[in-house]
Design goal:
The complex is a heterotrimer. By secondary structure, chain B is of the alpha+beta class. Chain B is built from six helices and 18 strands. Chain B is 29% helix and 33% strand. Helix content of chain C is 45%, strand content 16%. Chain C starts with a helix and ends in a 6-residue tail after the last helix. About 2% of the residues of chain C have low confidence. The chains are: A alpha+beta, B alpha+beta, C alpha/beta.
Chain lengths: 634, 341, 306
Amino acid sequence: MPATYKILTCIIALIGSSSLLLTEGMMSFFILSTPFVLTGYYRAVKGYPPAHRFVIGGLSTVTLIVFFIDIRLSQDVISAVGHLTMLFHAIKSFDIKDPWDPLQVFFMSLIQLLLASEVTRSMIFGAIFLVFMVGMVVAMFYSHIIKEGASGIRRFLRPIVTMTLLLIFMTTVFFLALPRFRGSLFGRPLSKGIKSGFSEKVSLGSLGEIKLDPTIVMRIRTSPMKGFRPYWRGMTFDIYSDNTWSSLQQGMRSYSSQNGVFLLADYDTKKGFRQEIILEPLETDLIFALRGAYRVEMESKTLSITDTGDIYIPKKSGKRIRYTVSSSNTPLMEKEPSPVYLQLPEDMAWLRGFTEGILPSAKDHKEIAKTIETYLRDNYTYSLSPSTPPDGVNPIRYFLLDGKKGFCEHYATAMVLMLRSMGIPARVVSGYMGGEYNRYGRYYIVRQKDAHTWVEAFIDGAWMRFDPTPAAEFTVNSPLFLYLDFLRMKWERYVVGYSRADQLRLLRFFERPVKVALWRTPSLKIESWFIYPLLFIILIAGIILYTLLLRVPQHIPEESRYYLKVRGLISKKHPVKESHTVREILSHFKTDDEVYPYLKEFILLYESLRFSGTADESMKNRYHYLYRILKEKL
Amino acid sequence: MRITLTREGRRFILALLVVAFAAFNTANNLMYLILGLMLSATILSLMAAYVSLKGVSVEFRIEEPLYAGVRTYAEFFVRNSKRYISSYSLRIELKGIDDGEIYVERVLPDETLSINKSIIFPHRGIYRVSHIRVYTSFPFIFFVLTKTLGKSKDDSMIIVYPSLYDVTRVVEELILEIRAREGIRKTMEGEEFQGLRDYQYGDPFRSIHWKATARTGTLMVKEYHEGKTEKITIVLDSLRYTDRALFERAVSFVSSLSAELLGRNFVLRLVTCQKSIPPGSGREHLFKILDHLAIVEESEEINCPFTESLGGEMVMILSGPDSALRQYASAASRVYYASNL
Amino acid sequence: MFQWIEDLKRTLTGIIKGKDEVVKMAIVCLVSEGHLLIEDVPGVGKTTLALSLARATDCTFQRIQFTSDLLPSDIIGVNIYNPEKREFEFRRGPVFANIVLADEINRTNPKTQSALLEAMNEKKVSVERNTFPLPSPFMVIATQNPLEYHGTFPLPESQLDRFMIHLRIGYPEYDDEKLILKDMKGLDVIDSISPVVTKDEIIETQKRVNSVHVDDTLYDYLLRIVETTRKHEGIRLGVSTRGAQFLLRASKGHAIVEGRDYLIPDDIKAVAPLVIGHRIILKSRTYIRDAVELVRTIIDAIAVPL
């Protein structure tokens, strides 16, 4: 076995193992096994003999025992098998004897990749997969070469490159074309989900820790909103007591889908805001959208909507979910709110006085709300780490009177309570605000730290939104980050999230006539600097393909081209072999008075131009002229 | 083209089915990705092998004449008639004449490779190439695609002559015997003096017989027996032999004898119980004789055609002293028994 | 290009009816300084062809009837001892003619055959220390009887090689044969032929053959034909380099006869079976197959240059 083959085997073993690193709890085994793998293959490359079979057998037995203990302890078959494969690689690296051994290693790496695919969703998996694919092509070629006893890989370089390119292409085609089924027969939720601050009861200040978390929660494809920041509405909280907000989920109604569409209200479709949302798995059954949602597209059987417009999916999803919401984003006229929205905790009697103190004089509700919003925004300081109130002191009271520092929850709670004390129905709404607009992919990136709470007050027959929280500074990410996130979005949208619906769309796309633009995805709207390297890569790939697949055919003299064309025309009527001379071809037309004279002259001119070694311009012209005549006649 | 799965291929397909089930069951797109990879590897490997074999033709030429047991070289012409795509990793198998295989790493587009392979034909007779098979496990080792080229045509028949060995001494003895019977005098330098004749253009001056010239007044030259051809009939007894090896030995002996005698400018006729080869001389005639000896078989009937007048000398090769043809032995200049050879 | 070629063709086809191709090949042979071997049963016009050709070209003609007792000196000539001058003097044999008809060449013994063939090849005769050039143009038309008659000596392959073209005349077509019967004039008609060309014109034409333009790809085409005969599995011995030279020369001659001063693939294709056919030795088991036919199938599988 050539050393390159052993090195390649080592690389493939490591690729397989590293794919497992994408899942949890693999690092220790990876660190444990990798030095052994490297040592084993180093020895193999250097030509040391394989380890004694008793050593291999003993180690294998130990590994099996470890595996069973592992399964009992962790109760997690996938990670236990993952550990086992890593140990297998380590042991096998010392036992590379015959050409069959690397094949076992390749197979084990394939299993590792399968395990990883079951657990991870990361884009890195895609990269590892690509490297694995290329590595496997080379390795399998090598195994063929060794089996056949060929002299080396040098002569096979061209097919290797061609096969790799074809394999990538075909894998893509298969990926897109293989049928997807709606649900799984059995299986398990894939990941634990991101902690969210969204539950029926939320104690004040719990959002604080989330606000530091940059984890991406959702990506929303929609047109950019100029002039205002989007509020991705989540949950409405009705009752505040014991420093805790709770949601009553009033008037929860269940909707069922019609062809994947939920119609929540009649609304003019054209005026709505369409949002295509990819939501990471969250520890909640809530989904988010701009307010005024009237239409939801989603692969789910039912949806539950409360009176307040909170949308719930039937079951907390372990997977990323994708849905499209159309929202009106204007306050919908609603019925008189329930008295719940005037509820105040008992110890809040002082608040009315405090509130009246900041209001110039009794005005209408809208003006009151505006004034409170402005007051809070201007006179309080935004801080994610406000000083904690002394024991027994109501945190809102502390915030309003003493600390004067807090974050959105404090501001929103304070304002709602102030409004309620003034007899205006109000509620706290939580969700996400803003998010970073990724212009490469034309979508919003919404993170945990964009979690926000704001206020809704019922004024003049509709719920109006107020946000007393001062605008916090926000960070701008580098273009590189945005671009990577764009890729990640694509990966998650089109690879991990590829679905039956996408397949149907793709099918419909190919059904449509070509006049439809081939790329309606905005991927070509990326910055121009990216175009040049892309074109360059395409050019290089084209050249490689050309040189690989096509050899320049033998030189055909200029005069012969016309004859060849004529011969091609003739071959449709009469059988023409390559061994036929022009005159033999001519003899087919002896009885064809229409063609024969022209063809004869043409052929004589061809012979003379081609073989006599002298070329006369007028002969050439005549030759070309005759060609045109013959083209019509034949 | 025939497709066979290798052991590795079987395992791979099995793994593919498992992955397919897992992918369909979990609807996990990453698993679909792996499934896509495995499927395309399977299909591409079939396609590559198919393309590799497509347009490949094999011709072979064996330097004739061939003799049993003698190492010869067959030249194989492996042609890839595709215009743009090379053929890789071909194995070529010749059923019928040789069990060995030829391995060709690569044949470029429109290229004809010529490969030499040594072959030993163990027995005389006609070998037919029942078929030439080309197969490949390219590019991975999952499948073996086999293409059978041309079933046996007449052209792919190969005649292998009986093995020849050195019979110089036997032949010299035989010639001495024949000469002794003819009573021809030996003259100087081994040439036989025949007589005198008139000078003709082209005769060397040194051959002029001056005494006779003076006597007759015209130029006279001595005439020698210049390879004046002598007719020999070889009779091979091909009636039932007790032992197959004995017959083979006789055939081989007759072949060697014929080669040696024809090499010495004799006119030779071969008679067996199946066929009579009319007299002739020269190398082409040797091939005529060997053509027959290559395929001669033991016969059952005694309607051998040599009862007619033979003319010239006769050499008989009999199976043994108890041969049914023994009765004709008296007419022979020399009788050999296969058992004594 | 050469008017006389057309005239000659017309004259000869007037006498040998229905055999235009044979006549043409004979002229090709003459123009490209080769020798012609005609193999056919008696009575199909071998002699008539040779005789008419000689008459029409204003050439001296000699006919040698080969018999089993013919000696080399009967062809080449003899050094006769002249007692008066007390020295040998050379008396020229019948080979000293422009066109020599060697009738039934396979009837004589190999020694005599080779005497003629040597003269053909070298275009001169050496007797003792003296060399006598043969006249120019010089062309031998040999005929051979294909039937295996008793006491014949078929020309061995190495000797056949010296003939440029090996022809079979074959029986005439039905209509032509009818015409021949109706138009029976016998050999008298040959006497009435008047020459259409002079010797000098022939020599000039022969020189022009050398300067026929040959495109490089045509050399490749020709060599591919030759090489295929060497590799072909039905052939024991393929065409030699000399055979390839003959093929090229005959093709050039064909081009001239066709009135061209450049070679085209058709020239090679037309002459190849007749030039190559007798230069290859088939394997014994394929005796049944005709060499000329085999060459035709070989050529039919080779792509012509474009």
